[in-house]
């Protein structure tokens, strides 16, 4: 991330204090014991990190999203479970309350959240409502002057730690909406709220993930965050923050993973010279460094859009997809460059890869987000970049967009494969544009050129023909039998 | 278009809306309902609905025009306008 000099004045001393506190974190132990070190969250709370993005009026630090991303990336470079716990609190956990909460809700909840005395969780996913948030079945019905809430939320991060829970629920009739969705805030200790067992996961094992069951939970009308029935719009904003901080975590994980890989290839000799002397390895690391620069660039650009909800939603979609996929590829590259040692858990090389895997799934599965990016690109194309270097790429993308729109009109919105391909190209365009704007050193300029070339290749990728379903079913039966 | 075919087309459109807005019965849908706030369709769901409608009724609706539609009433009006154009 690229904080300004002013942001650095706050972030650098904080990073240094964080390094002191995080020194006792042993990622492999966290992974094996499925929990964070005792007392760690309290120590982090004393540093004020849980209030980084919360308003100063209620005890927070009121820092910018770029500053928060820088801190989350720093923590993720040490341990991704700690970073996930913190990032969830700063993003999904508190953003709905900060952006849409009333004065009295702020007064009630924010001071504890800023100090880290209370940790926040956010619950939207259900067994039948993952990326399809409109399918939420958890319902809050009007009950006298208050609400009765029932439903089940799954994969709730921070569930066991949380003392404040924000969730989405269908609120039919509330606020005049026939089938509205609303954000609700509650204390998980409320009668009728129960936690399931901790999930056993591939990675992020030190972070808490549980099912939360809501059984006829009585809530006051003041549990509704913001305007009733506006939950879909609010959720988009909350998810934007979640995706942003998730992306920042990916930057931290990837940076440390590549650092480890670089140190290894400089030491490890094969065929009479260090691996770093091999041309193939050099090329892989050259591309990897460009990928990491692209990650930093898109996170920085997205974070700078924090005041513009629409731009934030669009750019955090791009940053989430790009960063989670590059994190996976580059942590995998690190493992590959470590050879057999990378496969041994005790070396710690595999852990970032396992931790990174879920980021392609949560906060919106990447292929769903890519399709959404295609929809956005079709509905509201971005204005042209001021950088001449972006002209060829933008012209090619515009041509593709126009071809799709001309061929199908509104029916293009049901051409999912075409939208997905358009979205993926648009995401790479966003990353290339961010990198082109940010690049100044020769290495960065080279990285930006690599990213533009990748985006151009994606834009020009021909769409494969539709696969007829009966053919696919028969073929799958053949090869899977 | 006759009154009978008008009613039939409206019925088909409302049924499509109900299908996209899961949990809402066709008979409960009113012209004034907003696709997003009242029927729970997000921006993607709204465009999917209009796309499905264009497929079903074989209409060539430009993206820019579809993006302006936000209520059941506007959906019906858009469909009828393009049906009339097709028949002209």
Would you mind describing this structure in some detail?
The complex is a heterodimer of chains A (481) and B (88). Chain A is of the alpha+beta class. Chain A has helices at residues 5-22, 27-33, 40-47, 65-78, 80-100, 103-115, 231-267, 279-304, 309-337, 340-343, 350-357, 366-379, 391-408, 416-438, 442-460, 469-480, and strands at 119-123, 139-143, 146-157, 162-170, 181-186, 193-195, 209-219, 224-225, 269-270, 273-274. In chain A, helix 9 (309-337) packs antiparallel against helix 11 (350-357). Chain A is globular, with a radius of gyration of 23 Å. Chain A starts with a helix and ends with a helix. Chain B has 88 residues and is mainly alpha-helical. Chain B has one domain (3-87): ACP-like (Non-ribosomal Peptide Synthetase Peptidyl Carrier Protein, Chain A, Orthogonal Bundle). In chain B, 60% of the residues lie in helices and 0% in strands. Chain B contains 4 helices and no strands. The A-B interface holds A 133-135, 170, 177-181, 229-230, 232-233, 236, 372, 375, 378-380, 405, 409-414 and B 21-24, 28, 33-34, 36-45, 47-48, 50-52, 54-55, 60-63, 65-67.
Question: Which helices and strands occur, and which strands form pairs?
Answer:
The complex is a heterodimer of chains A (481) and B (88).
Chain A: H1 5-22, H2 27-33, H3 40-47, H4 65-78, H5 80-100, H6 103-115, E1 119-123, E2 139-143, E3 146-157, E4 162-170, E5 181-186, E6 193-195, E7 209-219, E8 224-225, H7 231-267, E9 269-270, E10 273-274, H8 279-304, H9 309-337, H10 340-343, H11 350-357, H12 366-379, H13 391-408, H14 416-438, H15 442-460, H16 469-480
Parallel strand pairs in A: 1-4
Antiparallel strand pairs in A: 2-3, 3-7, 4-5, 5-8, 6-7, 9-10
Helix pairs in contact in A: 1-3, 1-4, 4-5, 4-7, 5-6, 5-7, 7-8, 7-9, 8-9, 8-14, 8-15, 9-11, 9-12, 9-14, 12-14, 13-14, 13-15, 14-15
Chain B: H1 3-20, H2 43-57, H3 63-66, H4 72-87
């Amino acid at each position: 991330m690229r904080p300004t000099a002013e942001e650095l004045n706050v972030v650098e001393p904080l990073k240094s204090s964080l390094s002191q506190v995080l020194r006792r974190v042993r990622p492999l132990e966290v992974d094996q014991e499925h929990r964070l070190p005792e007392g760690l969250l309290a120590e982090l709370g004393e540093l004020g990190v849980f209030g980084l993005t919360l308003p100063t009026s209620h005890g927070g630090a009121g820092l910018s999203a770029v500053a928060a991303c820088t801190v989350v990336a720093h923590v993720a470079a040490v341990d991704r479970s700690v970073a996930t716990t913190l990032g969830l609190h700063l993003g999904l956990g508190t953003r709905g309350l900060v952006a849409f909460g009333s004065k009295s809700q702020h007064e009630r909840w924010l001071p504890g959240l800023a100090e880290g005395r209370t940790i926040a969780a956010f619950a939207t996913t259900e067994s039948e409502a993952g990326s399809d948030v409109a399918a939420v079945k958890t319902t809050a019905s009007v009950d006298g002057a208050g609400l009765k809430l029932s439903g089940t939320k799954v994969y709730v991060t921070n569930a066991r730690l949380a003392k404040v829970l924000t969730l989405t629920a269908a609120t039919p009739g509330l606020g005049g909406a026939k089938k509205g969705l609303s954000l609700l805030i509650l204390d998980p200790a409320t009668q009728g709220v129960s936690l399931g067992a901790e999930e056993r996961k591939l990675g992020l094992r030190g972070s808490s993930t549980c099912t939360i069951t809501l059984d006829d939970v009585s809530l006051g009308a003041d549990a509704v965050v913001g305007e009733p029935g506006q939950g879909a719009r609010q959720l988009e904003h909350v998810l934007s923050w979640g995706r942003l901080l998730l992306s920042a975590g990916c930057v931290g994980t990837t940076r440390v993973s590549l650092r480890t890989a670089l140190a290894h290839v400089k030491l490890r000799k094969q065929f009479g010279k260090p691996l770093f002397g091999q041309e193939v390895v050099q090329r892989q690391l050259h591309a990897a460094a460009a990928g990491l620069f692209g990650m930093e660039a898109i996170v920085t650009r997205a974070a700078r859009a924090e005041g513009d909800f629409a731009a934030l939603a669009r750019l955090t979609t791009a940053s989430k997809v790009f960063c989670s996929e590059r994190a996976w590829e580059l942590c995998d590259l690190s493992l590959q460059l470590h050879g057999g040692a990378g496969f041994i858990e005790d070396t710690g090389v595999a852990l970032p890869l396992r931790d990174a895997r879920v980021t392609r799934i949560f906060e919106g599965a990447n292929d769903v987000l890519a399709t959404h990016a295609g929809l956005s690109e079709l509905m509201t194309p971005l204005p042209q970049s001021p950088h001449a270097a972006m002209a060829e790429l933008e012209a090619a993308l515009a041509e593709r967009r126009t071809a799709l729109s001309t061929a199908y009109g509104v029916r293009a919105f049901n051409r999912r494969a075409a939208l997905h391909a358009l979205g993926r190209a648009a995401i790479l365009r966003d990353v290339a544009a961010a990198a082109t704007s940010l690049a100044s050193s020769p290495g960065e300029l080279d990285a930006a050129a690599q990213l533009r070339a990748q985006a151009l290749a994606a834009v020009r990728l021909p769409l494969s023909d539709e696969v007829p379903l009966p053919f696919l079913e028969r073929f799958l039966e053949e090869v899977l039998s | 278009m006759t009154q009978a075919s008008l009613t039939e087309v409206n019925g088909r459109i409302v049924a499509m809306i109900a299908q996209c807005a899961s949990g809402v019965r066709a008979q409960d849908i009113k012209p004034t309902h907003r696709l997003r706030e009242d029927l729970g369709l997000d921006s993607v769901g709204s465009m999917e609905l209009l796309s499905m409608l264009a497929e079903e009724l074989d209409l060539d609706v430009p993206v820019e025009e579809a993006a302006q539609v936000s209520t059941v009433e506007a959906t019906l009006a858009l469909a009828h306008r393009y049906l009339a154009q097709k028949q002209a």
